[in-house]
Structure formats: structure tokens, C-alpha cells
Amino acid sequence: MRYALSFAVAAGLASMIASPFARAAENDDRFTLRLGAMDVDASGEITANTVFEGEDLQFSQDFDFGGKEVVPRIDGTFRFGDRSRLVFDYFKYDKDRDATLNEDLSFDDVTLPAGSFARAQTQFQLASLMYDYSIVDSDAVSVGLQIGAEWAKLEGSLHAEAGEDVYDASSSEDGFAPVVGARVTFTPGDKWLVNLQGQYLDADWGDFGDYEGSISRANALVEYRLTKNFGIFAGYDWFKLDATKNGSDGALGLDQRFKGPIAGVTLAF
């Protein structure tokens, strides 16, 4: 909650010193849908710890997925009051990477020597539905606090082979949790809109099984209306997934970041 409150306080100060810009057409829209794409740059870190023969063992490894990926991104707003609205969004990342092992790896009774082929695949989906209430609503600036629910799903798989030896493993986890956030919208002209948004989710609030951690998100976009009902937008989006799965013999952690520019079209009614 401290992220949402600090964001709202900063936005409130900004609204007090903003110049009296004209109210944009977005303030009159009942429904707004933005269809776009995100050029994602993903990077992360895997950590693990366990106890073996009374000794604490820890592991940490940085990794990426070898290049960027263009993925779909959808968000929208339904306004049902002067200060009340529903905000929803959806993001999906799906990427695989082939690699050659630079050292021997052993899984159960299978040992894959250095030089073996390996393929890793990851898929991350995130969707949210939030109630947004404008605590500041002027001709120049709108500031909203948000609360709602977010659904997240993380899937991963590994395939490795060396001659006749093959190893396959996969894991998937999904769940819901409450999410809090804040929004700041500037309307510097009849056809222009600037929107800033931040969200935070704690896995302990929801039903993510053995996972602990958090999901943080921040984005910004600038929109230009070509007509009252059609526009284009561009901006930047950032996600951070910090998850730890506890087991009987230790814990496995994943610190994954997704970031990149966004662009698309706006439909408003």
C-alpha cells in the first residue's frame, strides 16, 4: 500500500501546480480500449538454497532469453460515474531459447555432458481488473487510487538431450491476489492525453500455492486522438516478478524483469 500512497501524494502535488490545460476528449468517453504491442526485453536471476548434510548451500545465476520479443498488450477503461471507472489490462510473454551446455549436468540418473543441446521456454501472463476512484478531478489533471484483483500465470519447461539421453521437465503455477495502484492523467490539449500508472501485488495476499513474493508494474503512455473515437499511443511499460517457491528440501527463487516500449491504437466510444 505504501507504493500507491506515495504515488498519489506526488500526483496530488503535481495537480496543484499544473497550468489550466483544456479537458481532453477522454474525459467524455464511456469506454476506451487500447490495442497494442510491447517490444519486451526480459532479464532475470534464478536463486536456490537448500541444506545438504547439515551445510547450507546457495546458488545464484543471472540469465536472459537472448533478444527481444514483440508481445500483445491490451488495456481499457469503463467509466460509470464522474469519478468512478473500471480499469483492466492483459499482458502475455512467451519466449524460448536454445543453448549448448558448457558443463556437465546431472538430473536423477541422467547425466548430460558439456556440449549437449538444451532448450528452455517460459511463459508469463498477467491480467488485472481494478476499481479506480478519482480523488482529484480537474480540467488539467485526474488522480485516481485503484484496488482490485490480478491474475498471474507462470509456466516454464526445459528439454535437454545428448545422444540417446533426454531430460524433460516443466512447471506451471497461477493464482489470484488483490492489487493496489495509482493513476495520474494529464490532458494538455483537446487531442492529447498523458497517463501514468503503478500497481503492486503481494503473492501472500492471494492463492499462489507455495509461492511467495510480489509483482510490481509501472507504465506511461502518450495518446493523440486523430478523431473523437480513434487515436494512437506510444509509451513504456515495466514489470518485476519476484517469486520464491518453498519446498521440503529448500527454496527456488525467480527475479524476472520485463521492460520495453509500447505502441498501438485507441478506440473510444
Characterise this structure:
With 269 residues, the chain is mainly beta. It has a single domain, classed as Lipocalin. The protein is built from one helix and 13 strands. Strands 1-3-4-7-8-9-10-11-12-13 form a ten-stranded antiparallel barrel. A hairpin with a 5-residue loop joins strand 9 (165-186) and strand 10. The longest helix has 16 residues, at 2-17. It is elongated and about 65 Å long.
CATH hierarchy, class:
Mainly Beta
Task: Label the CATH architecture.
Answer: Beta Barrel
Distance between termini? 33 Å
Number of helices: 1
CATH homologous superfamily name? OMPT-like
Radius of gyration: 22 Å
Keywords:
269 residues; Lipocalin; 10-stranded antiparallel β-barrel; two-stranded antiparallel sheet; elongated
How are the SSEs ordered, and which strands pair?
Blueprint: H1 2-17, E1 31-52, E2 55-64, E3 69-79, E4 84-100, E5 105-107, E6 110-112, E7 117-137, E8 141-162, E9 165-186, E10 192-202, E11 211-225, E12 230-247, E13 250-268
Antiparallel strand pairs: 1-2, 1-3, 1-13, 3-4, 4-7, 5-6, 7-8, 8-9, 9-10, 10-11, 11-12, 12-13
Quickly describe the structure:
The chain has 269 residues and is mainly beta.
